[in-house]
Design brief:
about 350 residues, alpha/beta, Aspartate Aminotransferase, domain 1, three-stranded antiparallel sheet, 12 helices, about 15% strand, globular
């Protein structure tokens, strides 16, 4: 972030309207266009977006929702919030995306939805998933994937609903925030009510549009308070303009990693982009032996890494875990390397050199 974001926030503060208002509406219009859908609904996190998406599909007690086990816990938590059961599916050992064959095995008459996560920014094989889903609604978890494309189409419009994150470290960052993307007008209107406690008119709408009795509104169902605000939206509008450039820089860094690590026999690198799959490259994850030791070694050299993610079906909060062999085998081998637009070529080379030195000395 830079001066443009600072100026955008200052303008909103000076306007006197910092809550849910015109900047949020402008961001929703522009982000919907970016994703090739009719509507976007701004919320305060991707977790809220997932929760609302499930509510739009009337997911509730007695229902099952299939989710991948290698994801952030929000994907499964949102299912639990709605009283349904998250059914954990294994992942593809190469892409770390949903294992479509395992999804087919997990489908039951109780399956109300499937949440494919575009892991690391690489789209799921949506055609294969649709083929096995047999009409079950697909909710895209696009938290990693702003700007990714599948067979030429932007993610977020490939299923019934898309859910995005604008958390501080995401490709399009607002500090925090999220959005639903969708094409159904009735769902859009309901989502806008549900994000504002079920109230049928936002405060800005009542102030601007109603000439009399502006304080009156109706509440037909109980919703949450999870809307976006204009401070975050003003940052998001600047970030949206920057996204092609910053995602382009991510791709340059990824190519440098590929070139520098391709001949390290111990490592498995992620799949490169091709005509069908263009990743947003939110993360660059390697699969490696001695993962923990490598992470400590890099930390000692001033290089921060991460793990995205330990298989979440093993967390106690979800009850007795199924056996998901591929994910469990991957869980101790995944390591996320530094990847952000301000990373310099020299810094990337420094990461590469230290990884090569680690395996050279073992």
């Amino acid at each position: 972030m830079g001066q443009e974001e600072i100026d955008a926030v200052a303008e909103v503060i000076r306007s006197g309207w910092i809550g849910l208002g015109p900047r949020t509406a402008e961001f929703e219009r522009r982000f919907a266009e970016f994703c090739g859908v009719r509507f976007a609904v701004g919320v305060n996190s991707a977790t809220a977006a997932l929760d609302l998406a499930l509510k739009l599909l009337h997911v509730g007690p007695g229902d099952e929702v299939i989710v991948p086990t290698i994801t952030f816990v929000s994907t499964a938590h949102a299912v639990a919030y709605n009283g349904a059961r998250p059914v954990f599916a294994d992942v593809d050992p190469v892409t770390v995306n949903l294992d479509v064959a395992d999804v087919a095995r997990k489908l039951t008459p109780k399956t109300k939805a499937i949440i494919p996560v575009h892991y690391g920014g690489r789209p799921v094989d949506m055609d294969a998933l649709r083929e096995v889903a047999a009409g079950v609604s697909l909710i895209e978890d696009c938290a990693h994937a702003a700007g990714a494309r599948y067979r030429g189409l932007p993610v977020g419009g490939l299923g019934a609903i898309g859910c995005f994150s604008f958390h501080a470290v995401k490709n399009l960052a607002m500090g925090d925030g999220g959005a639903l993307t969708l094409n159904d007008a009735a769902w859009c209107e309901r989502a806008r009510r549900l994000r504002w406690l079920g109230i049928d008119k936002g405060t800005w709408d009542r102030t601007v549009l109603d000439q009399a009795y502006w304080w009156q509104y109706q509440v037909d169902e109980i919703g949450l308070k999870c809307h976006m605000n204009d401070i975050a939206a003003s940052i998001g509008l600047v970030q949206l303009d920057k996204l092609p450039r910053t995602n382009g820089r991510r791709r340059e860094i990824v190519q440098r990693y590929f070139a520098g690590l391709a001949d390290v026999a111990a490592l498995e690198l992620p799949l490169p982009d091709d005509d069908a799959y263009q990743s947003a490259w939110h993360i660059f994850q390697i699969k490696c032996p001695d993962r923990d030791a490598l992470s400590v070694h890099l930390q000692e050299q001033g290089i921060a890494t991460g793990v995205h993610y330990a298989p979440i079906h093993l967390y106690r909060c979800y009850g007795d875990p199924p056996v998901l062999k591929q994910a469990e085998a991957l869980g101790g081998r995944l390591l996320t390397l530094p990847l952000y637009p301000d990373l310099t070529d020299d810094q990337v080379d420094y990461v590469i050199e230290n990884i090569r030195a680690f395996y050279r000395n073992r």
